[in-house]
Every structure is written in structure tokens, then in C-alpha cells.
Amino acid sequence: MPRHFRPWATLFVLLLLACRAAAASPEGIVIRFSHVVADDTPKGIAARAFKRIAESRSNGRIRVEVYPRSTLFDDNDEILALQMGAVEIVAPSLSKFGKIGFPSFELFDLPFLFRDTEEVHRIMRGPVGRQLLADLNRQQILGLGYLDNGFKQMSANRPLLRRSDYAGLRMRIQPSRIIAAQMIALGAQAVPLALSETRLALSTRVVDGTENPLSNFVTQGIHEVQSHLSLTQHGYLGYAVVTSQRFWQQLKPADRELLEGAMHEAIEIGNNVASAHERRALDVIHAWKETHVHRPSEAQRSELEAAMRPVYERAKTRIGARLLEQTLHELSEARLRRRP
């Protein structure tokens, strides 16, 4: 579809689905859970787990319809769809909240901020993460929790191990000023694109490379159109599972409690499989044999980290100096406690 027609087509679908929601049967509850990745990713597994648990505990009175792979909306449209009532639950990547007025979520886009998932969870489940979800109330969005995907790697048609390797590359990114600044710091050009458009853009050389967790590389077929994958582990990709306050407030307290419990368990299921999926995805890429896998040395990682360090200074005005300082302090304290 030509790009100049797309906003009108999207608006038409939103209005159509919103009308369908108004016509839903009063005897039951229908929840449409839209997301942009495959069923067999951590997010896809969590969505299906939520469907199974919610429908079972409500004896079928609550029905959950899961729409994966941008079946309804891609990641440019899903938050608007939620706000217009065309879907009830979405799980955008944390980067997506920056463009609707919550740039503080781009904290999680900072390069080399976290050493492992344990550190990510410490921030998400602590004061910083709870405040970020509470802030969404300003736009009538209710945060239900955070969901992991994994740490991001870099790909292109050449190895990306040193800063000079990025010079002149057009790198597909999620819309995030922090990620864009990261690519610019490496000497590349940042090109925001929806995940659903990424494989085609890579195969037609509209862009030269991208960053993503391994599970997305495999389920989106990105490894099939990129000859080199570099295991940089430079950043984290996660999601916030959200619903609209308007929908949530229409539910009976008992149903809200049931759905909160179902979502909590579903998120735990998704998070528990995330690391295993990363390992399996890497096995798939190795077996493909046409994609060469590179692991940067400690010196190369240090060079990349140093090149992207200026992004932190820029982040102070984007996400807030106080929030960044609080996060760095909490991580520092946690690392001291973890020392043997």
C-alpha cells in the first residue's frame, strides 16, 4: 500500500474495530491482544499463556483473541489502536512510549547500561520501573507489567566489531532518539522502520543492517538476508504490557483481579523462556551457515562502549538527569552487593 494512503486505511480499521468492540455481547468479555512478533517468541508465548489462563479461570466467560505478527496493527499504530478502543491489550517495546510523550522509557535503550537480565529486572521492579508505569496514567494507559525479549545484537553484510565498521551504514532502528544517537555515535545513519518492514528493507538494501535480539532475527527471517551477525550484547529490548484505563474501569473488580493474576503468570512464563529462546535462535543461525557469527573481544566491546558513551550525556535532557542518576546508583549498589 502506498505510504500516503496508509494513515487513512489505518484510521478506517481503527474505527471499524472500535465499533465492533461497542457491539460486543454483554454476557461475556472479549479481549483483543495485538502484537507485532511471532507466536514462538517470548512475547508471543506470553500472549498465548495469558489467553489460556484467562479463559480457563473464567470458564470461557472471558475470551482472548491474540493477533500476532502485526495482523491488526504494526508497531507504528498499536498504541493509537489501544487509545481508540480498537484493541484492549498491546505490548509495545519500551522505545515506543517516547513518541507518545514518555521519553523516560528510553532509559532502557541506553547502550551497555545493563550487564544481564537480573539488573534489568531490578530496575523494572523497583521505584524507577513502577514510576514509569504509573506515569502512563496521564494518557489513560494502564501498565500491567514488563516483559523480556533479550539483549540486542548487531547485523549487516559485514562484521560490526569496531566503531569504524559502522561508518556510512544505514541501520534500521526502532523509533527512539536514544537509539538514533547511539548509531550516530558509531558513525552510522539511523533509519526508523517498523519491525514488519525490516526484512524487506534489508533484502532490498534500503537499509544495510539492524539491531535486535536473536529471537527476532530468526522469527522475522532477518538472518536469511544478512551475512554477518555480531554478538555485541550492547542493549536490552523489552516491552510494557498495557491496556486502556477506559476498558479496565468497565470491568468488575473480580474480573480485574482475575486478569491481573493471569497476566502476572503469563509474563513470568514469557520471561522464563526468553533466555532459552536466545540459545535456540543462535543454534538456528549457526545451522543456517550462510550467516557468519562473530563475538567481539573484550577490547572491541570496550571500544564500542567508549564510542557510545556520549549518548549518556544526551540522555540527561531526553529522559531526565535525576532518573538516570537514580538508575545508575541502584545498579552500582546492586553490583557491590553481588561481588563475592
UniProtKB/TrEMBL annotation:
It comes from the Bacteria. InterPro entries: DctP_fam, TRAP_DctP, TRAP_DctP_sf. GO terms for cellular component: outer membrane-bounded periplasmic space. The keyword Membrane does not apply. Gene3D superfamilies: Bacterial extracellular solute-binding protein, family 7. Transmembrane segments: none annotated. Keywords: Signal, Transport. Residues 1-23 form the signal peptide. Pfam families: DctP (PF03480). GO terms for biological process: C4-dicarboxylate transport; transmembrane transport. Belongs to the bacterial solute-binding protein 7 family. This is TRAP-type C4-dicarboxylate transport system, periplasmic component.
